[in-house]
Write a structure and sequence with these properties.
This protein has about 250 residues and is mainly alpha-helical. About 65% of the residues lie in helices and about 10% in strands. A hairpin with a 2-residue loop joins strand 2 and strand 3. Helix 2 runs antiparallel to helix 3 and helix 4 runs antiparallel to helix 5. The two termini are about 55 Å apart.
């Protein structure tokens, strides 16, 4: 609900809730507009609103007798359907936060981004919807009965709680995204460190093998039967010395 133009004989309402989605429309909620006055409610919606199913059942059963009953029924139906969906956003974020330091977090960042975008989108519609319901409760119109105002106020309280939950999901998802980004950067730095250590270990070995592999006269011990294994042992010794030096200087600490 975005606005509540009130007139002497009625009010124009704009509500949003879960319903049939259009693949080409990025709006996560379905809009329904209603003109309410004494003894009459005129509604218009381009797509089907899920909350209307329960309202139609109550209407056929005779439980909806005036415009106030109809408006409060739609408001309660919208909040009852949105409540578990928004709770699922928080529960899924709880699961992600509890396993955020585990391996295999690649791909979770995208889901966290989706949760945050969903929370922002729903909050954008529910926050004014709460304000509109509260204003409707205080509207001085005789076609709203006291029990209707009570039900609308209950729906407004639910909206307020959902808005708070969405705000918490938005902030927590931002922190989770930062934590995942830090973990990814730490993982890349660790891999870069390992590559640097391996490269530095093999750098002197590459120099020795390249120097002794030149096809020129004067290579020391070129014809000695033990020269090959002597060079291999020398290279192994140099590799061990460099590795120990890295260990002592704490290069290999994660």
């Amino acid at each position: 609900m975005f606005s509540l133009p009130a007139y002497d004989h009625g009010a124009l309402l704009n509500m949003r809730g879960l319903g049939a989605q259009d693949p080409g429309d990025g709006d996560p909620l379905v809009s329904i507009r209603m003109w309410a006055q004494q003894g009459r409610v005129v509604s218009l919606s381009y797509r089907s609103l899920d909350a209307l199913d329960g309202v139609i059942v109550d209407m056929l059963a005779g439980r909806i007798k005036d415009p106030g009953d109809l408006i409060s029924g739609v408001a309660m139906g919208i909040t009852e359907q949105l409540d578990p969906y928004i709770a699922d956003l928080g529960d899924e974020l709880d699961t992600i936060e509890s396993h955020i330091s585990d391996d295999g977090h690649i791909g979770v960042r995208h889901r966290v981004t989706q949760l945050r975008a969903g929370a922002i989108s729903y909050r954008r519609f529910l926050s004014p919807q709460r304000s509109m319901m509260e204003r409707l409760v205080g509207l001085p119109c005789h076609w709203l009965e006291p029990d209707d105002r009570l039900h609308i106020q209950e729906a407004a309280d639910r909206c307020a709680r959902m808005v708070e939950e969405l705000e918490a999901v938005r902030e927590r998802s931002a922190l989770a995204h930062e934590a995942l980004t830090d973990l990814r950067a730490e993982h890349m730095n660790r891999q870069a460190l390992i590559l640097a250590v391996v490269a530095l270990i093999f750098l002197p070995l590459t120099f020795i093998t390249g120097l002794l592999g030149m096809n020129v006269e004067g290579i020391p011990y070129a014809h000695a039967p033990w020269a090959f294994w002597g060079v291999v042992g020398f290279c192994v010794a140099i590799g061990l010395v460099v590795g120990i030096w890295f260990k002592v200087t704490h290069w290999l600490q994660k």
